[in-house]
Amino acid sequence: MSGLPDDPRLREELLGELDALLESADDARQARLDALRADRPELAAALAALLAADRRFGGFLEEPLGNWAGALVPGPDAGGSSFEGRILGAWRLGPLLGAGGMGLVHVAERCAGDFAQSAAVKVLARSDVHGDLAARFRRERAILARLTHPGITRLLDGGVSDDGWPWFALELVQGAPLTDHCRERAADVRMRLRLIRQVADAVAHAHRHLIVHGDLKPSNILVDDDGCVKLLDFGIAKLLADDDGADLTLAGRRPFTPRYAAPEQVTGGAITTATDIYALGAVLYELLCGRSPHGGKDVPEHELLRAAAELDPAPLTRAARDAVADAAGVGVVVELGRDRLLAGDLQNIVARCLAKDPAGRYASVDALLDDLRRAEAGEPVQARPPSRRYVLAKLVRRNRVAVAAGALVLVALVGGLATTAWQARRAAREAARAEQARAFLLDLFAAADPSATPGREVTAREILRRGAGDLRGKLAEQPALRAELLVTVGELLRLVGAHADADTVLGEALTQAEAVHGPWSPAVARVADALGGVVYELGRFERAEALYRRALAIHERAHGRRHVATAASLANLAGVLSQAGDPAASEGLYREVLAIDLELLGPDDPAIGTDLNNLAVCLYRAGRAAEADSRGSANRTRTWPPACTTAPRCWWISVRPPRPKPTSGRRWRSVAVCIRRDISTSPAR
Amino acid sequence: MDPRPDITSLLRSARAGGAAELEALLPLVYDELRLIARRHRRREGADPTLNTTAVVHEAYLRLFGPREADFQDRRHFYAVASLAMRHLLRDGARRRLAARRGEGADHTGLTGHEPAVEPRLELLLAVDQALDRLRGLEPRLAEVVELRYFGGLTVPEIAELLAVTTRTVERDWQRARALLSLSLADDGRVP
Q: CB B104 to CB A253 under 8 A?
């Protein structure tokens, strides 16, 4: 309190003068101060300072703290006024349904258009700090639209309000959180397992579409009165991430819930499908013993986080005994106590899901589902600590390429899609092969013993080379599988830029495929296509042309000229002819491809987008930019169905000048990634 | 059933001057306020306001029940509750500032970003410190500030509790406001 006299008498005089001044009008106040300045300069100066300060800060002190102090009390931390009655996008918000850490959920009715629809509109408790949420949302919507599963709540709409609140409209679900549902019905073990299998099934569906949830927890899993599970908020966590969204392994900061967080979320590692598997394990754990893996409701957040990163949860049966206080769970505890075999299997399954090291968990949700089914049926489960696979996975981790490997497989699949229309159509088959390829890769990495290469990092390229070498001596009794794996390794080698090796390996694969399937098998055509791609990228157009013609001949013989597979081969051939300096032939082939696809697939198929684009690029290279432009525009203005995610990339390519002749796989990989990014960043239409 | 210590007897002992009893009382009221405030926040949803008056009064009702409490008990309760509210909001402000400074310390959840709140946090903490200094010189002014600014009590309520006229409360408040403002200005604060 500087400027305030210590002497109480003087202080009282000062405060008395202050009263008088504060209560007088401006003129009178100034006159009084002036008068005081003449005979009591110190007093006048102190008063002037007080008055000046009061003018500056009085307003702050007069404003009731309650106007803004809500922000100082933990709670649903949104700003602005209540959203009830507001209109966001096409939705009129009704009463509040609930509030959570993420924000507020309102019931809403569609108020635009001519049909009635209800939704749950979630207004996020944070402003659009990055300023790009709306753009990111548009980008993600196309991807999220692919999720059509009865167990996944549909994302209907979303945006950012005029005053900056991001919102999402979700399918309205009536139901109770998974844990509440089980408690209320005193569900037995089998009923709980059935529910978790439903959850896992929905998650597996999303994973097949390369979408990770990232924040699975009981409150995100509703069960309706018919016992059907509905997952909420798929894709939301990713939308809120700070990262660009182009990567398949989602690094960067994303919201998560400490109680169900996987170690890699706590430590800032890559968020992958393994993260969801951890969360599934955590939810299963809670369903079976009444508390989450790292403690009851009263364990503080920071301890939960530390435990997630460092501590192994107590074994199920012990945790269940400890949590007996949860009355409705008693039945489950008794049941598990009686059925020791089931309890043991479930313990192993849960432990496998909750492995600290993502590579130590189930390789896929399907594998988890398998084990759950086995446990219920009394068959031996795969999860048994410490499994050989787990030990291998540990080895992979020590090689520090685990994440890169996961990404590689995905890039192999997605990057492959971006190359030709034929491969795009093969997407489903490629996805089904992912699991197989992944298992094989694990063994590849295991072969790369770190002691053999002390003191340095083993590159993916080296591992693949060794794997290819290993394949030569192995699997003699399974030539078909060997051929298949040779192709996979060859394609991966191409992706890491080891084109010479890819050439060799795919050459072997071709011989093997011919020997196994005969020279006219479509399997041979597939290898010829892959090898053609490699030599094309090596700039050996003549050899590429020969390989593509070979593939074309096989397809034509198998399916006739007017067939999508044949058309894809024609497109490959057209590509190489365009590079080899025969643009007229190339153009003719592209037009034929377009005609075939138009006839067989109709004008709305994504392949048409690719065909139009190819033709546009071909015309552009031939110096006919105006025609190319009209093709490209036609493509861009087309309204693609929501599931179509390949069409938007076409324009991206055609507005850019032709790339220099690609000489390395690295460049092509980056092209694939660019295209992939372009797919995911393009608006849905 | 109710594990809470008898609030009335605690209040009485505190009034009798036992610092230990006051120490026992403060956290009790603090927790009560925090619980109530959180519930209010949930109910009010996105609204950044917190009706501190309502929170304090509700805490009173919960601790004393509907019966009319002894005048001295009431006076003491509101003094303690205002102090507890001051601590509650101060702690909240510190937490928010720490989270903001910690750059990434606050990534486990989504926190709201009411833009106008941020600059007020430092001011609130400065008021809290200045209030301690004011108490050393003019304890009654400090008490009025606590009851009004933090406890959210009205001038007539404060006048009744302190057994003075509303005129006196108003004048005390004005004086305190100017003195605290001066302290903020001396600290180099920006309004």
A: yes
